[in-house]
Amino acid sequence: MLHVLHVVGARPNFPKVAPIMRAMARRPAAFRQTLVHTGQHYDQRLSDVFFQDLALPQPDIYLGVGSGTHAQQTARIMLAFEEVLLHARPDLVIVVGDVNSTLACALVCAKLGVRLAHVEAGLRSFDRTMPEEINRVVTDQLADLLFTPSPDADANLLREGIAPERIHRVGNVMIDSLLQALPLAAQRPILAQLALQPRTYGLVTLHRPANVDDPAVLQPLLTALEQIGRDLPLIFPVHPRTRQRLADLPPLPAGLRLIEPLGYLDFLQLTRQARLVLTDSGGLQEESSVLGVPCLTLRSTTERPITVTHGTNRVVGTQPDAILAAAAEVLSRPLPAPARIPGWDGHAAERVVEALLRISA
Ligand code: UD1
Question: What order do you get walking across the sheet with 313-315 strand by strand?
Answer without folding.
Answer: 256-259, 234-237, 202-205, 276-279, 295-297, 313-315
